[in-house]
Amino acid sequence: MVMSFFRKGESGIEHIERRVVSMLGEARHSYDMAIAAVIGGADPDTVEADIFETDERINRAEQELRGELVVHISVQGADNIGAVLAYTLLIKKIERIGDQAKNVFDLTREGVSLAGSPDSAELQRYASKISGLFGEVTEILSDGDAEHAMEFRATCDKLRHECEQHVRNFMHTDEPGHYAVPRAVLYRYWKRIVANLSGVVIGVTEPLQHHEYLDGGTTGLADD
Amino acid sequence: MTTDGEAPTNSGIPSLLRSTLVVALIYLFLVGVSSLEAGIKVMGADTQERLFSTVSNPIAGLFIGILGTVLVQSSSASTSVIVGLVATRALKLDDAVPMIMGANIGTTVTNTLVSLGHVRHSAEFKRAFSAATVHDFFNLIAVGLLLPLELATGMLSNFAESISEQLLGSAGSEWKSPIKQYVKEPVSWLKDAWGAVGVSGNILGTLMVASGLLIVLAALAFITRNMRLLVADRVERSLNAVLGKGAGIVAMMLGVIITVSVQSSSITTSILIPLAAAGVVSLRNAYPVTLGANVGTTITALLAALATDAPEALTIALVHTTFNIVGILLLYPIPKIRDIPIRLAEGLAEVAVTRRSYAVTYVIAAFIVIPLTGVAVLG
What does the pLDDT profile of chain A (224 residues) look like in tens digits? Predict the structure, then answer.
């Protein structure tokens, strides 16, 4: 452990960035597993342990990263204070995504399985699109491409509004509750996941004061 | 992740250039120590005796060590000056030992002051203050045990002297320090420069000492600043690897390595305070790093000894190292004894958090009033 002092290696902020990307990978894994159980027809009992273990890893990573961010400031001084505050908010968003993936999985505990339902193809299309967003976030965090981040956030805004519309439609549908409620809940979770993914890349384009806010700083992420 | 105003930490000077600058600063530091030595030598024997008569009382010497270190906020600087003075033989080795121990106590003021920055938040302050004062208590207990033992038996100085003798020769003799040869020239330029303005004798000696002190302090300050920038990523990486893992000896080794790298125990111990305040590192995990810093900081005095040609200079530098290692051997291995400084620090923090003014009173009393009174009464 002490020999790490003598080895050449990445800078503190690079190390934090790498761990954030890995945390995001874990959140995506959790999300994909939950979707496989709810829409893909995978046996919930088989994926449950994986999802909960992944969530524990995400939670542990968040706590360790908070400590590493404090170490970074203590050692390096205030030069990177903006990045440190941004990462503090960002890792909380990723942790929330992990929780929301778990919430999606929790639908199976209520006996919900949308595999083979008439709209399963459309649901799967949404699920895959959102899974793909995780990969894009990783790319944006790594290359810091502001243009890509703007496009990504526009895509997220569109998806969020679509999800919102689906939730509204299910609120007024004539379909029975056991059909409408699970779908409304699922779209609601998707909307939250998309909002959080958009929030993760916000640091690339927006000043720190707007982090945790959407729609140009008017909507708090938690209110969305 | 990009944010407005973000700047790379190690910005400005490239690492290679900064490393070269550090080497040059170390050279300047050695020139400073040598100037100090030369300045004292220029003074007459009577002046030398008058200057150092105060410290013939060991407790007064201890308090002078504390005060001098509090004043320059660096035990590296104060111990280097002591080494330079011992090299002149005007300051006797036996008189310098308590001063070295005092420097060890004095250096703890820096992180205690840093901890006062958290005074507004009770829980944070309690953690920060206990992490800072554990260093104070360890050094006070170590001095309380080892100073009487040293005065009675000369244990530490005898041991250091035997090492020094094996390496350089007996006390009173001269050894040809290879580094001394390289710093001789600039010191004689300095002497000539002061001589050219028409000063001689004690005034020339005083000016040489003052120049030497200034050079030592400035060089150490810049060495510390540059080394901190050079090794910041390594420090961060190794702290992440070690802290929170509860690894006592490994954490102690890390404390040694970081302090040797940045040439300042205050930097190492002060880095720990915000970490302790935030709860990222526990008092028990911070404690061994602090003890490692105590040992690591002795490297500067050892380095300073290389700029002199008196074996006594190396002996006093080795006394500093030995004192800290023996202190750890006495107070760290047995868990019940190890807990004493921790419990005392926690107790003091408990009191300080209920009455904040006690914390400030403690700092002023322990580091200024008591040493000043001691010097006034005993000196």
Answer: 667 777 777 888 888 999 999 999 999 999 999 999 999 989 999 999 999 999 999 999 999 999 999 999 999 888 888 889 989 989 999 999 999 999 999 999 999 999 889 999 999 999 999 999 999 999 998 888 889 999 999 999 999 999 999 999 999 999 999 999 999 999 999 999 999 999 898 877 776 777 767 666 666 666 56
For B218, half-sphere exposure in the C-beta direction (CA atoms, 13 angstrom radius) is 11
- 């074996």: which residue's tokens? B311
Determine phi and psi for A214, rounding to 5 degrees. -115, 180
Burial label, A139 (beta-carbon count in 10 A; 0-12, 13-18, 19+)? middle
Contact A2 B254 (CB under 8 A): yes
How far apart, in whole angstroms, are the C-alpha atoms of residue B336 and residue B325? 19
| Domains of chain A as residue ranges with CATH | 11-223 (1.20.58.220)
Which residues neighbour B89 within 8 Å (Cβ) at sequence distance 6 or greater? B310, B312
Residue A58's alpha-carbon distances to A29, A47, A64, A213, in angstroms, are: 11, 16, 10, 23
For the whole prediction, is pTM greater than 0.90? no
Q: Determine contact: B117 vs chain A, CB below 8 A.
A: no
Rg (CA), chain B: 21
Rounded to a whole number of angstroms, the CA Rg of chain A reads 19
Of B320, B342, B345, B318, the C-alpha closest to B331 is B342
Q: Give pLDDT, residue A161.
A: 94
Mark yes or no for CB contact A2/B239 under 8 Å.
Answer: no
Say whether residue A6 is in contact with chain B using an 8 A CB cutoff: yes
Name the residue of chain A whose CA is nearest to B7's CA: A79
The predicted complex's ipTM stands at: 0.80
Q: CB A6: neighbour CB atoms within 10 A?
A: 10
Average pLDDT score over residue span B228-240: 88
What b-and-e string marks burial along A177-205, b requiring 16 or more CB atoms within 10 Å of the CB?
A: eebbbbbbbbbbbbbbbbbbbbbbbbbbb
Nearest to B32 by CA among B81, B79, B76, B68: B81
Cα A72 to Cα B144: distance, rounded to the nearest angstrom: 37
Nearest-CA distance B256 → chain A (Å): 10
d(CA A141, CA A139): 6
Residue count of chain B, please give it: 379
* Span B70-96, pLDDT tens digits: 998 888 999 999 999 999 888 999 999
- Give strand pairing partners of A214: A219
